[in-house]
Amino acid sequence: MGVAALIYEARWLLTSVALAIWVALKIKQYYRLRHFKGPFGTGWFEIWHGLAYLSENSHLKFKEATDKYGPIARIGPNELMTSSIELLTHINGARNGYTRTRWWYLVGRFVPDRDTIFSELNEDIHNKRRAQMAGGYSGKENHELESSVDIHVAELVQLIRTKHCSTETKTKPFDLARKTQYLALDVISHIGFGEPFGDLVTDQDVGGYIEDVDKGTRASVYLLGFGLTELALGTPLMHLLGRSEKAKTGFGGMTANTRRIISKRLEDDPDMSKGTDMLASWFRHGLDKEQLITESIFQLIAGAETAATSMRSIMLYLLTHPRVYTRLQAEVDAAVKDGRAAPYPNIVSNATQRQLPYLWACCKEGMRMHPAVTNSSQKKVPPGGNTVMMEGKTVYLPGGTNIGYCVWGLNRDQKIFGADADYYRPERWLNEEDPKKLAQMNQVHEMLFGYGKYQCLGKPIALMEIGKTIFELMRNFDWSVTNVEEPWKETNTSGIFMTQDFLVEATERSVS
C-alpha cells in the first residue's frame, strides 16, 4: 500500500489529531491573556479585530472596547488595546525592550523589499535611520524651511481670495479638505524635493498624488483587515493592490513618480551639493537612492495627510463654535494691530504664532477632539514578559503580546480631560490650575506625534504649518460651514483619515 493510500485510510484520524492540536494551541493562546476582557470572541479569533479595520471606523471601535472593558482591552487572541497614558509612555521608553510588531508595521512598506523608517523592525537600523534623517527636518540643515512654508500658506490665501471668495451677491462654496491637501503636499514636496508639486498654483492634484494616496491607503485597509500584509509583499498581489511600480495608480504609481523626480535630481546633481532640502541632507548623511525613494514616499503620506487632517479638524471646530471663533479672531487681530504679526502680505512668523496662547489652545483642542492619525502602532512585549504599574496596580503582560494605542480613547479620557472630555473647549488648556494635570494633558498631546524613540521627526514642521495656516485663514477671511447637517464625509483608512466635501464659504476681511 502506497503512502497516499495510507494517508487516505487514516484521513479521519489525521484530521482529528490536527484538530486536537489546533484546539490545544487555541486554548493555550486564550489562557495567556485570559485576565484581559474584550468583545465576544476576541480571545479565540481575529475576526473582531479585522472587522474593526474593515469598518473604516476602527478608532471608534477601539474606543468602545476600552470604554467598556477598561484601559487595557483584549481585541484579538494575542492583541491588547490600551488607552492608558502610563502604559503607553512605558512601552515607548528607550530602554524598556518593547519592539514594533511585524503584523502592523509592514503595512508601511510601500516598496516590497524596502523598509521605511516607519516599517523598519530592527531597532538598531531604525535608530540609525532616524539619526541620518533628523537633520533634514530641522532648520539647521534645511535653511529655507520656514520661508518654504510661508510661500505656500500665502498661495493658499491667494487662491481663496482670487477664486473661491463668497460675496453678498454670490455664494461660492469650496472644499477646504482638498485645499488643505494641496497646501500640505506643496509644503512637503518643496522642503523634501526642493520644489513644490504646484497644487495651489494650479488648484488641482498635480501628478495625481492625492488620488494615489487615497487608493493606496484604501487597499491597505484590506491588507490589515484580512491579515494579508506579509502574504502580499513580494507577490503578484502587490500589483493588484497598487503597490507595484507597474501599477498606474496607488502607492505603485506614487513610487514610480517619486523615482522619476529623484533620478532626475541625482542626474543633475550627483553629489546633491547644491541642495539644502531634505533630499540633500538625507543623501549627505548616507541614504542611497532607493532609501531616498522609500523615505520620500513615506513623508509625502505621513507629512501631508496628517497635517491636512489637523488643519481641517481645527477649522471645523472653530467654525461650529462661535464663542471660540470670535475670541481667536480677536487674538489674531490684536497680534496684527500691535505689530507682533507683520502686515499682510507677510505671513506670521513661527516665533510669533507659537506665542499666541488661545491660538494654540484651539489647535491642541482640535487635534485632541479629532487626532490626525489613529493607527494602533502596536508594540510587542519583551520575550520574558513585563510587569507594569497602572493606576497604582501591578499588571503583568506576557512576553510576545501585541499592545496597540487607542488614540481616540486616550484623548477623550475623562480622568485626564474632565467630565466634558467629549466636548470642544480650548480653555481647558489655559485654565487648568493643577500643574501635574496640565503636564499629563500635554503628554497626551505629545503622544499624537509618537513618543520617545518613535516620535515623528516632522513634528516641528507640522506644528509650524498648522499654526501659520490657522492664523492666516482667521486673519484674512470670515468663515462659515455650507452644509451644517453633514459638514464633511470621512472614512478611516488604516488609521489615516480620508476626508472630502468639507464645503465652506469664505468672505473677505480687511487686513493690515
UniProtKB/TrEMBL annotation:
Q: How does it sit in the membrane?
A: Single-pass membrane protein
GO BP terms in the entry: antibiotic biosynthetic process
| UniProt-listed Pfam families | p450 (PF00067)
Q: Which GO terms describe its molecular function?
A: heme binding; iron ion binding; monooxygenase activity; oxidoreductase activity, acting on paired donors, with incorporation or reduction of molecular oxygen
**Superkingdom of this entry's organism?**
Eukaryota
Which is a Gene Ontology cellular component entry for this protein? membrane
Sorted alphabetically, which InterPro entries does this protein's record hold?
Answer: Cyt_P450, Cyt_P450_E_grp-I, Cyt_P450_sf, Cytochrome_P450_monoxygenase
Pathway listed for it? Antibiotic biosynthesis; Hormone biosynthesis
Q: Which residues cross the membrane?
A: none
For this UniProt record, the keywords arranged alphabetically read as follows:
Antibiotic biosynthesis, Heme, Iron, Membrane, Metal-binding, Monooxygenase, Oxidoreductase, Transmembrane, Transmembrane helix, Virulence
Mind telling me what this protein is named? Answer: Cytochrome P450 monooxygenase ABA1
Supply the source organism for this entry.
Sordaria macrospora (strain ATCC MYA-333 / DSM 997 / K(L3346) / K-hell)
